[in-house]
Amino acid sequence: PSLPCRGRPCELVMAASKPVEAAGSGGGGGGSGLSRWQLALVLGAPILLGAGALYLWGRRAARRGGKGANERKTPEGRASPGPCGSGQPDGPGHEETSPLDRAQAAKNKGNKYFKAGKYEQAIECYTEAISLCPPEKNLDLSTFYQNRAAAYEQLQNWTEVAQDCTKAVELNPKYVKALFRRAKAHEKLDNKKECLEDVTAVCILEAFQNQQSMLLADKVLKLLGKEKAKEKYKNREPLMPSPQFIKSYFSSFTDDIISQPLLKGEKSDEDKDKEGEASEVKENSGYLRAKQYMEEENYDKIISESTKEIEAKGKYMAEALLLRATFYLLIGNANAAKPDLDQVISMEDANVKLRANALIKRGSMFMQQQQPVLSTQDFNMAADIDPQNADVYHHRGQLKILLDQIEEAVEDFDECIRLRPDSALAQAQKCFALYRQAYTGNNPLPVQVAMKGFEDVIKKFPKCAEGYALYAQALTDQQQFGKADEMYDKCIDLEPDNATTYVHKGLLQLQWKQDLDKGLELISKAIEIDNKCDFAYETMGTIEVQRGNLDKAIEMFNKAINLAKSEMEMAHLYSLCDAAYAQTEVAKKYGLKPPTL
To answer: Where are the TPR repeats (predicted)?
Structure first.
């Protein structure tokens, strides 16, 4: 449920390239929003990005109808009516029962007690079966342990469940019922890592055909990801993004005073000569020095210079607060950004465009944090206080796409275009909104109209890379791979330093020609252009999982984790990494590997 962003990094667009919970979920995991890996299946992509990438290759089979949710609840065994210890022979010619026969009879009696809900008596019978069974009868003995675990499960004795399942798996390492039952016990005991390893083994053994195990895998991956990201993000070192990323970020605003060239909007004479500008900087204004550092792309000094202006309560205090907040957001420090944004928003005597811009950025931050209600409130307030600000409608339109409110998104893009007819970005994103609405509605005629709209946009705005990029993604959906490739080439011609375009073009080679070498070559080129492009590392890691190169995949995911710009993004990446790591453990323990590309 996201705007397929090629890396234009306003906060909202950054959020758009990651999984977003449905509106109203409050980030609690109860929403109906699709993870990116599920969305990729809906769109038919062969390289599937998102939490649980390990499991994706078989997801279609599961969606076609896997085994039911009531699997594995009953104990195993023949429906033999012989009571425990009856000594009844199996047939003519037997003068006495063997130890295994007596064990089977005890188990059968246990099954009767189990079905009657008499779990303590069932446990006694299964225990007798275990004691009677010859030790060399591995498969029978593993069944008796697994059945006793099933009875313990009904009594919610989770430690005993895990112990008995472990014995069953030791005797029969590919025993799906025992592995899955142990996974559920580990979940109850909050042993997430062990749970993930067991359910990973189950998914592989069942060829990803059972929805119950798939859902447990997805659930525990998300929990692990959130848990690890919370700790890591709290202690992370702030990291300034690449200059390309920062410039791309500011290009998504047109009414942002702080991103304008030095002194524009701050003095009535915007054509002041260089000598005049230099004299202004000598006023000892931290803000003006910060602006000069921006022009020089010396971004590391901006927060400290803005802080000097704020502490001095200087002439440009509101601007300095907004500039500092913006760079806090860029380095992924939302907690530091929020008080500055709050202060600017509350300054009723400040320039209304500063306040509206602060509301846009705070609203985008809230959306990243999966708080869509607060996000919507901020965008609506921005529209109320500065109704002629095109940026408000442009960024709110992206929010509406994320919330699947396509008609409202189109209205916002239309208003942005009315205010700024030359806004190529808004026109391209409006086309995408209309395309997405038509595509998900499975209606060929509106899809054709939307595709024609893309053609019109790139004809009218031939220098707008975003138009070609969004059109390329729509063409890929329509299996028009050759033309999509041409559109990505246009993007590269216009923005040769945009790393994410190379990533998308690389993914296209995999889907179109199954050309792994070319795909990886393009993604490596993206990293060469921008070694802080987390999307490139994430994508390469996902491909390496699909190829079975798990150690390399884990290395790539860890690099992406260190570059993550939000806790939500970091949680998503940890889920990918944990999925790959679980697969390495399963391969070591059981020799199990899913098919590779």
So the answer is: 103-136, 390-423, 465-498, 534-567
Q: Which two tokens mark 25? A: 């979920």
**Rounded Cα distance, 317 and 314, in Å:** 5
- Is pTM beyond 0.85? Reply is no
d(CA 554, CA 587): 15
Q: Residue 82: CB partners within 8 Å, gap ≥ 6? A: 88, 104, 105, 108
Q: Is 479 left (phi over 0), alpha (psi -120 to 50) or beta?
A: left
Residues in the chain: 597
Q: Note whether 116 and 97 are within 8 A (CB).
A: no
- The per-residue pLDDT of the chain, averaged, comes to 83
Distance CA 380, CA 393 (A): 9
Residue keyed to tokens 């702030």: 238
DSSP 8-state secondary structure symbol assigned to residue 90: S
Bridge partner list, 267: 264
CA atoms of 352 and 51, how far apart (whole Å): 41
**What tokens were used for 223?**
């929990």
Residue with tokens 């112990």: 163
Q: What is the pLDDT of residues 555-586, one digit of tens each?
A: 999 999 999 988 889 999 999 999 999 999 99
- Asked if 46 and 60 count as a contact pair (C-beta separation under 8 A), the reply is no
Burial of 325 (0-12, 13-18, 19+ CB in 10 A): buried
Q: What is the C-alpha separation between 361 and 261, in angstroms, rounded?
A: 20
Question: What count of other Cβ atoms lies within 10 Å of the Cβ of residue 578?
Answer: 27
Q: What are the tens digits of pLDDT across the range 469-504?
A: 999 999 999 999 999 999 999 999 999 999 999 999
What pLDDT was estimated at residue 38? 30
* Mean pLDDT, residues 306-311: 96
Q: Which two tokens stand for residue 93?
A: 């010619």
**What is the SS3 assignment for 431?**
helix
Do residues 527 and 563 lie in contact, with contact meaning Cβ atoms separated by under 8 Å? Answer: no
Residue 385 burial class via C-beta count within 10 angstroms: exposed 0-12, middle 13-18, buried 19 and up: middle
Tell whether the model's pLDDT for residue 189 goes beyond 60.
yes
Q: Residue 137: phi, psi to the nearest 5? A: -85, 70
3-state DSSP assignment of residue 264: strand
DSSP 155-210: TT-HHHHHHHHHHHHHHSTT-HHHHHHHHHHHHHTT-HHHHHHHHHHHHHHTTT-B
Q: Print the SS3 string covering 363-426.
A: HHHHHHCCCHHHHHHHHHHHHHHCCCCHHHHHHHHHHHHHCCCHHHHHHHHHHHHHHCCCCHHH
In angstroms, rounded to a whole number, what is the distance separating the alpha carbons of residues 67 and 84? 33
Query: CB atoms < 10 A from the CB of 156, how many?
Result: 10
Structure-token pair, residue 3: 């705007």
Structure tokens belonging to residue 412? 């916002």
* Alpha-carbon gap, residue 126 to 132, rounded angstroms: 10
Q: How confident is the model at residue 596 (pLDDT cuts 50, 70, 90)?
A: confident
Rounded Cα distance between 388 and 410, Å, is 17
Strand, helix or coil for residue 267:
strand
Q: Which residues on adjacent β-strands are paired with residue 67?
A: 210
